[in-house]
Amino acid sequence: MADEFDYIIIGAGSAGSILANRLSAGDATVCLLEAGPPDRNPWIHIPAGFTRTLANPKVNWLFESEPSEGTAGRPVYVPRGKTLGGSSSINGHIYNRGQRMDYDSWAQEGNRGWGYADILPYFKRGERRIGGPEQTGDEDFHGRDGELPVTDIDGPEPICDAFIDGAVGIGIPRNDDYNGATQAGVGYFQRVIENGRRVSAARAFLHPVKHRPNLDIRTNAHTQRILFDGARAVGVLYKKGDQTIELRARQEIILSSGSVGSPQLLQISGVGPAALLKDLGVEVVHDLLRRESLAIYLDRGFGRNHDAVAGNILDRRANGGFGAVVSGGVEIINAEVDGFSNNLGGVFHGFPRPHAQSAVAATSQTGDADAQTGFA
């Protein structure tokens, strides 16, 4: 007989870790499924360790995009976390909430409750801001009592200060809190590092509650498909080693497998464009329109003969030693590099010293930041 839970959460990344924490705070039973292993790899918890995790198939799906005209026929490396904490366990630990305009556009398209004013209280609830707005008097955008510590860069860096001064000199405003009223401007990154350690979503939200009797965390549990009774999702099948295991949900099945994993799981379960599913030999449960508008973090490389580990990672993507991209709308970096023209949005991001980064959010004609660039 299949195990039953009130909620089944698929994916223990940033969203899944928080949901497991919140939903298990009462009496509801929760099962959290993670395809990857526990987050015991020491490189996960060392801030500079992301140069290792970005190339480690044990904790990273190592996806690549299909070649496209916009990338001159080349695939683009798409790292995605495969461990407790998901991508928050392998990324560059920068804390960036995203654009107010993006959330508001979701609400305008009919997704009520997803506007920026709707979700800001949840950002604040989960945040434990250290420094920042306490010094500026702006508490409207930040929380102090949440689980996720958000800290500032350790001390000023002369080269970063020079970069910031240069940006201000050409008219880009100084912005000491890009997670505040606006992202437009130039300033230092905020990050999820405390006492010299990465604080992933799993470390902040999941590990403190993992002993709750109503929370069952299952790692190395790769979901194969969602089970339906007619049009209602009622359970899941997942693989653990050679075993295929069935679970049943009394209330909800929550997909939190990321922008790649969640739609892929829907499609192999029969939810997606009918023509595509039939072409793949998947039985159609629900014909769902596909939105083809995924935007990804794109890196390009400058330089060579860098640290062997970082160089190997970047050679997969950019044939170079530093991750970088030419960013449209940013006057400081306005050039063509190896076939990527300056109308591509993206980031300029240095790998060796992630604790010494700056950020630029360039202002578009609409008044909203439309590109971000940084360096170390």
Please characterize this protein's 3D structure.
Mean pLDDT is about 80; it is low at about 300-365. The protein folds into two domains: about 5-90 and about 200-285, FAD/NAD(P)-binding domain (3-Layer(bba) Sandwich); about 100-190 and about 295-375, no CATH class. The protein has helices at about 15-25, 40-45, 50-55, 100-110, 115-125, 135, 160-170, 200-205, 260-270, 275-280, 310-315; strands at about 5-10, 30-35, 65, 75-80, 125-130, 150, 185-190, 190, 195, 195-200, 215-220, 220-230, 230-240, 245-255, 270, 285, 300, 320-325, 360-365, 370-375. By secondary structure, it is α/β, with parallel strands linked by helices. The strands form seven sheets. It has a six-stranded mixed β-sheet. A three-stranded mixed β-sheet has the order 5-6-8. The protein has a three-stranded antiparallel β-sheet with strand order 7-19-20, with helices on one face. The protein has eleven helices and 20 strands. It is globular, with a radius of gyration of 21 Å.
